[in-house]
Amino acid sequence: MVAVLLSTIALFLLVVRATHAGALWRDECGTVQLATMPRISDVIDYFDHQTFPPLVPLIVRAYVQLCGSSDAALRALGLAAGAAFIGAVWWNTQMLGKGVPLLSVALFGLSPIFLTWGTTVGGYGFGAVLIILAFAATTKLLLARTPSVILCTFIAAIGSEQFVISNLSLVLTITLSAFLVALIHRAFKTAGILASLTVCAALIGVIYLRIFSTGEWRILFQQTSRVSDLWREFTRAYGESWSLVWTGRACFATIVSAAVWLLGRSLAVVGNSKAIVIHFALLVAVLSPATYFAALLAVGYRTHPWHYLLLLALLPAAMDMIVIALSRIYWLRVARLGFAMIAAIVVAGPAWITVHQRETNIDIVASKLTELAKPHDLIVVAPWQLGISFHHYYHGTTQWITLPNISDHRIHRYDLMLSKMISTRPVDDILEIVSRTLGSGHRVWFVGEMRMPESGNLPLSLPPAPGDAFGWDDSAYSESWLEQFGAFVREHSEQGQTVSQPSIGAVNQFEHVPLTVIDGWQ
Fold first, then answer.
1. Which of 87, 285, 295, 435 is the most buried (most CB within 10 A)?
2. Cα distance between residue 264 and residue 276, in whole Å
3. In sequence order, what are the residues at sequence separation of 6 or more whose Cβ sits closer than 8 angstroms to the Cβ of residue 513?
4. Average pLDDT over residues 59-63
5. Which DSSP letter does residue 497 get?
6. Is residue 366 domain-shared with residue 349, that is, in the same domain?
7. Is 293 found in the same domain as 389?
8. What contacts 260, CB < 8 A, 6 or more positions away?
9. Local structure of 445: helix, strand or coil
10. What CA–CA distance (Å, rounded) separates 247 from 238?
11. Angle at 187 between CA 185 and CA 189, to 5 degrees
């Protein structure tokens, strides 16, 4: 009854999220604009500039052709991914013929990270669905080696990598854990199948890794990370509520400790179905964080909350499976129920706030500019990444440019950003256009956060990369250019005035954009 209630609440929250998320933010706009490029060959040529393998934009392309490209239609796609995840975790808990997804729904299905990033237009939502299906199908394969189960396992495991490449480490953890369990329980034919699956998954993953690692511009993503840094980001990704974080940790520690303690008893019998499931789910629960963090450290890219979504989806599914296999341990079942109820109560407030939060206000800004900006005015968008969503929503006649001036605003063109970082005077062309516009009596509209150096201080000016302590840090160069622009405006024009926008409630911090108008010349 609790599982059904929580699942119903999760589906309700997903509907509320789909109807309140509003416009697409820049990552989503980039995916849609990649998907709707004139030719499919363009999608194949440019997919590596976005986050996902080519299957994602191709699916979005087909979806747009069938259902349209309106915000409502694309939010429905995110809703479908969320609903599919609830279905996947229910199927996962039926692998032993009984059981319900208490922890999968309470700890993840109701969490802000799932409601926000699992429902965006992209691969994360369906990537989470497929990693759960891969885990469930592999569990079934260990218990019943039938052709249909084998096929399902291959499709889910290989398919999960086609939505999010970071699923590779989780797929390899699942298949190698199952391979080890099959050897322990002397199921050598099953072990051979799992070995083949592991090789296929690794080969496909290596192909994508090579594609996503080519191009010197990827150095802009690199950063020196430690395990403590990743752990801090992982904890932050789960939400601002420390009560929920500690509930999840206590639940994980209790279930894993109970499984380890009970494995040394009668459940260790070779060939016992419950022992097989417990061995497998325990290995996945313990090893998946280690392999996921190791992969992040090896890649060395800076991370954001959505990069941890897949791991956070898999862990509760493994914990649910452990408790279901240990169903005769009454206190453990009660503990799981208690943890699920506590988590649901703790997350209720943050979840309700999250589902009402807009992803961006860039559409409101674009509408305001269409209304107020004159044909001979100038619109400056900064940082340049905002140009992706602004390109999607602005349809006015006023000239607009980004800071720095990037020529392609459809997708994330870090290669063009790199060329600006290594140039000697990357924003002089922008300042020239601004001075010409203001000098002729027209206005400049600034989309983004203005940066004004403190009085008496010169703006930060960085030499061509990487000839400074900041190296290849693109955010440092963006801040430098913003300060130079702010200093130029303060010196040559009246103080910019913030343009009021209609009240739209809470907006995601990643793209809550102010609008400033600059007028006058001196």
1. 285
2. 13
3. 360, 361, 362, 365, 386, 447, 448, 449
4. 96
5. E
6. no
7. no
8. 282
9. strand
10. 11
11. 160
- Rounded mean pLDDT, 141-166: 93
What is the strand order of the sheet 444-447 is part of?
Answer: 399-402, 378-381, 444-447, 515-518, 497-498
E-strand ranges in 382-438 read 399-402
Q: Are strands 515-518 and 444-447 parallel, antiparallel or unpaired?
A: antiparallel
Q: Which two tokens stand for residue 348?
A: 């209720």
Query: What number is the average pLDDT over the span 187-199?
Result: 94
pLDDT in tens, 418-473: 999 999 889 999 999 999 999 999 999 999 998 887 776 778 888 888 877 788 88
- The domain of 402 spans 362-518
Residue with tokens 């407030």: 349
Neighbours of 505 (CB within 10 A): 11
- In one-letter notation, the amino acid at residue 211 is I
Of all helices (H) and strands (E), which one includes residue 179? helix 167-184
Q: Are residues 387 and 298 in the same domain?
A: no
4-37 pLDDT, tens digit per residue, is: 999 999 999 999 999 999 999 999 999 999 999 9
Residues 120 and 263 both lie in one domain: yes
Do residues 343 and 389 both lie within one domain? no
User: For the CA atoms of 347, 348, 351, 356, what is the dihedral angle to 10 degrees?
Assistant: -160
Q: What is the DSSP string of 21-80?
A: S-S--HHHHHHHHHHTSSSHHHHHHHGGGSSS-THHHHHHHHHHHHH-S-HHHHHHHHHH
Q: Is the bond into 404 cis (omega within 30 degrees of 0)? A: yes
Q: Report which residue type is found at 433.
A: I
The angle, 0 to 180 degrees and rounded to 10, between the axes of the packed helices 330-355 and 242-263 is 150
Please name the residues in contact with 266: beta carbons below 8 A apart, sequence gap of 6 or more.
none
Are residues 282 and 416 located together in one domain of the fold? no
Question: For the chain, how big is the Rg over CA atoms in Å?
Answer: 25
